[in-house]
Structures are given as structure tokens and as C-alpha cells.
Amino acid sequence: MSNAIEMRGVEKTFGVTKVIQGVNLTVAKGERHALIGPNGAGKSTTFNLISGYMKPSAGSILLNDREISGLPPFRINRLGLSRSFQVTNVFAKMTVWENLRCAVLWATGHRYAFWKNIDNLPEVRERTAQILQDISLVSRRDVPAGLLTYAEQRALEIGITVAGGADVILLDEPTAGMSNAETERAVEQIRRLTEGRTLLIVEHDMSVVFGLADRISVLVYGEVIASGTPDEIRSSRKVREAYLGEEAA
Amino acid sequence: MLELIVISTLNGILFGMLLFLMASGLTVIFSMLGVLNFAHASFYMLGAFFGFQISKWVGFWPALIVAPLLAGGLGALVERYGLRRVHKYGHVPELLFTFGLAFAIQEIVQIIWGKSPVDFRVPAILDFPAFTVFSTNYPAFKIFMLAVSIVIFVGLLIVLKRTRIGLIVQAALTHPHMVGHLGHNVGRIFMLVFGVGTALAAVAGVIAGPALVTQSDMAGLLGPILFVVVVVGGLGSLPGAFIASLLIGLVQTFAVSMNGSLAGAFGPLGPDLASTWLSDIWNVTIAQIAPIMPYLMLVLILIFRPMGLLGTRET
Amino acid sequence: MTIAPPPPSAAERLKFYSVWIVAVAALVILPKIFSSGGSLTTFSLIGISIIFSLSYNILLGQTGMLSFGHAVYYGLGGFLAVHAINIIAKHKYAIPLPVVPLIGGIAGLVFAMLLGWVSTRRSGTAFAMISLGVAELVASSALILRSFFGGEAGISANRTKVLRLFDWSFGPQIQIYYLVAAWTLIAVIAMYALTRTPLGRMCNAVRDNPERVQFVGYDPHVIRYIAFCFSGFFAGIAGALAAINFEIANSAYLGAAQSGTVLFSTYIGGAGFFIGPIVGAIFVTALSLSLSDLTQVWQLYFGLIFIAVVMFAPGGITGLLMMHRPLIKAGTLTRVLPSYLIAFVPTLAMIVGLILTIEITVYHTVNPGDDPHIKAFGIPFDASNHGVWAIAAVLLVGGFLIARKSWALVAARWDDALTEARAKGVAA
Questions:
Q1: For a FRET experiment, which of A72, B106, B239, C56 has its CA 20 to 30 Å from that of B6?
Q2: Please, which chains are in contact with B (at least 3 CB pairs closer than 8 A)?
Q3: Separation of first and last alpha carbons in chain B
Q4: For the whole model, what pTM was predicted?
């Protein structure tokens, strides 16, 4: 029982196009694993397949040794996997506090309760306050999420993803569109928030990847062409070819 | 018996084609503009009433051309000055706008033409029996209706598959956003599509008007069935709308002519059950439940295949 | 700043509870001021409409579900209430009339539970169409199941034949008013409380972003279903009260017109705030009762008002008013007010022109043989006078053109006021 995520021979076809062509991927428990690759390689599709947003056309996906391919997203989430989105996907009309609170409700066991006053649940309050502090948005607590700055929204996005206490976290390009300073802060935040959890992150920013990841997998044209430690990947000829073309490699 | 089947099949296909004339416009408008035009059946009604009025003044044949153009022009204006404004508020306000429009059109038609049916007559030149099936005369006007529907249907097919604008519309059916990115004047295309879609509904109205009743509640009666057609066929699918239109047209036409009931098949219930709801169900004939058959189909599709027969798009 | 939002201060709590106390006081005092039978009936109808509209907003405003068939649960509540009254009276059960709305509510709940799972499978436009189809199914079935629905005539009941409570027979309208007022208060409190629960919050989340809701562990279908059931419950209560008030339930209760009316009320009042449907219910009920006396085609005016709200004020009356909150907070409202006054004049002219045009057209198409000296909205004029036609045209067209310019001015002033408010730190 040492693998958080395992993908075996996963394929995904849209119409006649095979976008994911037999992906084998293993992410060990507690590992920080980065998924990199050129544009159009299928990284977001892979995320969508793992998190249940799409069904694989073939192959199997295991979460903590349990088959999850074909399950709806909310079931996979309840089994302990949570994901963030590349395009910020928050509850725009609710305040930052209320956004985080939504993410905490299921995990604290309140489910569909219609007989409890939500302002009177101490555990919900405490956990929401904790996350709010962790993502450093305390001063923006009562601002509607739609009015936050871009970087604040990305922070909120990550906050919602980890608030439920899932132990497998998928982050989809969390630092996209950020300045260098913002990226550094974000990486620090991610490192703190995913302490002790398994992290699978899609990233384009190589400094983030090499600074954060324990292991890296490279996805090209829907296939994993290399998987290993940062050093192994850095020195891999196949990877250089994929990114820079044959001659440069 | 055979005579009944033949007549019902003809009528069923006719009704189905009429439904498709409307459902096709509705589907294309939905796919391109993302809004389900609640007022679509209202344009059908406008076509019938414009057709009636123009027939009275000038004659049926000019009406056949002018009424759809008028209605389609109105549709284009509605898109340009009404719908487009509301577009930025989201899908719910768009749907509500068309809902309010349907309501207002019905009221205006009632004001101008009254609440009773108007005397929209079949043009004399077509008012004869085309052929006789066993002992029933089948009116030539209905054959004319069928012919017009098929011609338009074929024309639509040609435009969609063989012309450039048709290619754009096909693309927009599944990827409306890309159409704008490719440099086409999206606003003008939307106006065109809305105008043509509503004009198609109006054509259905002009040709159906003399055969069916032309009355201010036409839109209210046909509207819900139209939406059942597109949901059953699958929102956004033209072939689905075609199959669903024929299916509902045939089912409803056949049902209306069947007088079977549970009582007829199994004999009457005992007298102590005479005034209960069970007795109501036992004694109702298939013809009496014909009007609700489309809605039963809707519920069945929702239970067994919620995306519709050939549905591709989630909303 | 402490991390979690602080509990409400004593002042805030006082403000909150005093609103409710004032509401209760108003309900008690109202019939003493306006004690005519007509007024009491109007108040009763408004109360029923408030419950119905609030129940509709559980779907529309809170969970983002647009239904065109909500009258089904209202109507079924009404029919069950009428049957219940007849059965209670016949067997002399010890059930007093005030309990009957609960029976209606349970009827609404049961049918919502039956039809709801399938209805809520899809969302958005598909859900709207499905609600329409299901409503047509039920409304059409009403004419087939004659023993339950009574055919075209409906089923009637005598509400005074039920067990008396405190010697009240519930015959006089004043007693019906208090019954409706009490149930309205209970329903409003209950539905407000619902918005403050985990379910209520997640309904809002489903409205805003159903995709994200899945990724925080919730099944949007279940949330929609539960919201649907609650909505049906309260609609059933409203329907039962209506049946008690009119002592009859017929297929019109279930029909498209009834579904349309509640949609109008809720949307015109404003779906984005809890109090919106209350405002809308009062506005629409009062307006429909008074408009029908003033003009023949009041329904057309209603449709036009609805379209205008959808096009220009999608937040409804409440939305429009609440829009001014940041300005009031920052003290910049005074910048905009004068421009409102300037815009008011041409807009009024345009509306008068429109009314004249409509009424003249109505005269010519509906009653062309009658005396052309008609009254519209209490103002007499000659509908066949060409001069009047000219005035109507000028008011309409001229008013429209000038109004357009003046509203551009309002927009500019709003811009200034909003910018100033933001500079003062008010979030908007």
C-alpha cells in the first residue's frame, strides 16, 4: 500500500483522436510529483481523468489501491483526492470566508444538514479560520471572491482544494500568470499546505518544478516518456529531444 | 383498419415534419446562441396570423412568401435589440426574456385578432381531395404541406452541407465560441440564424394555419410539445430533433385515433369502484390521453436516457 | 482583525429581531386600519403569494434552478387541502382548519419527492424544459382523473364545517386573514432559517459553480433534489391556503398561468435577496388587482413590465435598491439623485406615449364600435381623434430619444459616484 495514485495503461479518445495513449504513472504516498510536458501533451486531460471529470476509454486508475476510474468526481473527492483548477473556479458571489467554509462542510460531517445553524458550528469555524490563516487572506475575509486580485484568487483556489483535508492533492498550474515574487510566495504556501500529503502538480515553470518536486514525469503526446528524480530528468536525452527537438539534444 | 393506418401514418409524418420545421430552427438557435427560444412557437403563431391577414388582403401565395419574411425580420430585430442586450446577464435572463416575449406576443395577438379562431381558409386551388385511400378522401392541401416541408428540409440539408454559411453553422453547433475566433462577424451571423430560425417556424404556421385551427392559444398549445421534442431528441442535435419530431408526430396521431381503453379490453370495474380515480384510469381511452403522450415520453427519456436520444451537449 | 467573523453584536442582534417584531406588529395592525372585506382579501392573497414566491425562490434565487412548472405543487397542495376538508367535515375528525395548510404542505412535499429525482437530473435550460413538460403532464392529467380533480369545475369545500378552534368558524374574511398571516410568518421564518444552514449554503454554491461543488465532496443532484422537495413543501402550504380562501381548487391552480405568475413575482421582486420575492409578491398582487380595474389589457402591461425588468433591471426591484447600498455607505448617493430626476421626465413621457398607443390600438381592434371617449388609467381621452394619435406618437418617439440621452447621463453620474465610493474604501 505505498502508492497514492497509480495509472495503468490509461487511454482517452475524443471522437477519433486518441489524446491519452496508454499512460502509466505512479505517485508514491507522501511524494511531491510534478507532471510536465509541452503544450497539448494531455496534462489537463490526465488530471481530468484522475479526478473523475472524464471517464477513461481504457485502462485503470487506482487511488490508494482502490479503482476509481468511472466514479463521479464527488465520490473520488470523498475518498480523499482533491484538485484545483487551471482557470480559477471559486464561488464568485460568496465571500472568501464562505468559500472556504463550503470546502470544509463535507469533511466535518455536516453533509446536507438543514436543521443546524451554520454560524453555530465551532469545528467548521475553527477549520475555516485555520485555512484562511494558512493562505494569508485573513484581511480579505469578507470580500466577495469575484472581487479579489488574480493572485489572491489563486491562493483561494488552493485553499479550497486543501481545506477538506484530502491527503492526495492535485494542483493544475497553480502559479500560472504569476510574477516571480508571487510565484515564490505561492511555492512556499504550497510546500506548507501539502506537508505530509501527496502532491501531484502540473507546472510549466521549471524553477517551481525543480524546486518542489521529489519526482518528475514527462508527458508528451499522451504518453509518459520519462519518470524519475529531477536529476535523472534533467540529464535525460529523451526529455531534451521532446522539449528542444532532436538536433539541439 | 388498414385505411386507418395509412391515413394516420400520412398525418403523423405530416405533423412530424411540421414539428421538425420548428424544432430545427429552435435547435440551431440553441446551439449557436446558447438560448432556448421560449418564444419560438410564438413565431409559428405569428406566421399563421400574418399569413391569414395577408391572405385576406392579397391572397395565399403572396402570404406564403411575405409572412415568413415578416416574422423572420421581426425575429432578427428581436435578436439584435432585445436578446443581445440580455446576453451579458447570463442564460437564465435570456430564457426569461424569451418567456416574457412569448407572453407579450400572445397578448398582442389576442388584442389584434381576438380570442376566437380566425377563418384562415385553404386556397381554392388546393381545396380538393388529392386521392382516395379506401373510403377516405385525403385533402390535396395536406399533400401540399408535406411537399413544402420536404422541400424546405432538403433545402436546409443542402445549405448546411454544401454552403460556406452552412459550414459555419455546423461548426457553431458544437463550438460556438470558435466561430468568433475565426473572424466571422458573429453578431450578423446570430441575427441571421435567429431570423431564419423564426422564419422557418413562421412557414410552418402559414401552411398549418388553414389545416389546423388558427387561434391565439396556438403557441401555448404547441410550445411545450416543441420543447419535449428537443429534449427527447437531445438538446443541440439536429438528427435527434428530426427523429423525435417524427416519433412524437406519429405517436400522437396514432393515439388520437385509438379508442382502446383498459375497460374495453378487460371489461368494466365493479360498481363500488365507479367514482374513484382507479375508475378514471380504467375507463380513459387512448385517444383521451393522446395529448399527454409527448410528456410521458419526456419522463421516460429522463429516466432512461437523460441526455436525449442523440444528445451531445450538456447545458 | 480576529480571524473568524465575530458573532453579531448586541446592536446587530437588536436590529435583526426588531425587523421581525415590526413585521409581526404590522400584520396585527394592518386589518385594523384597512378593515374592508376587499382589503382583507387582498392582504390574504398577498400573504399566499409571499409564501408561494419564497418557495419558488428556493429554486431560482438560492439554487439557480429555473422552473416553469412550480404551480404543480401549489395546485396539488390545494387539491389535497380541499379533499382533506371534505373528509374531515364528513367524518368529523378532530382536526381544526389551521392544520389543513400543513396537509397541503405534506402533499406538495410528497409529490416533489416523487417527481423531483427525475426532474433535477439535469440543470439549467434542460431543467427548465423538463419542469414545463412535467407541469403539462400533471395539468393535462387533471382533466382525465376527474374524480380527484373534479374536471373543469374543480372541487369545492366548505371551510366552516371543520372543527372550530377558539370558537372561530373561519367563515369571515378577517379570520382567514389571521390564518394566512400566521402561516405566512411561520413560512417566512422557516425559509429564512433554511438559508442559514449547511444545506442552504451549499444550495448557493451549486447555483454559483456546480462543477466546483463536486470537488468539495457534494453531489449537486442531491442538493438540487432536497431544495426541490423543500420548495414543493412550501408551495403546497400556499396552495392549501389559497384553496381555503376561495373554498375551491381547480385545474387553473396547476396551470401554466399560475406558474408564470409566481415566476413574474419572484423575478420582478428580485431573486438575489431573501426579501426580493416578498417585495415582488406584494407588488405583483397589488398591481394585478388594481390594474385590472384601470385597463382591459392589464396582462399585456404585465408582460411588458416583466420584459423591461429582465432587460434593464435583472436584479429586480430589490436588486435595484440594494445597488445603491455602497453609495449610501460612502455618502455619494447625492451625486446620482439629480440625474434620476432629469431622466424621470422623458421616461414618463415615453411611458405615457406607449400607454396611449396601446389603448388606442385596443380600442380600434377590440371595440371599434364603441364610444371613442375612453378612459385609460382614469384619464379620459378621445381614441379616434387624430390629434391624440399625434400626441401619442410624439410622446413615445420623442420621449424615447430624450430618455436614452438622459439615462446615459445617469450612467455617467453613477460612474462618478461609484469611483468616489471605491476611493473611500467601500467595496463594490
A1: B239
A2: C
A3: 44
A4: 0.90
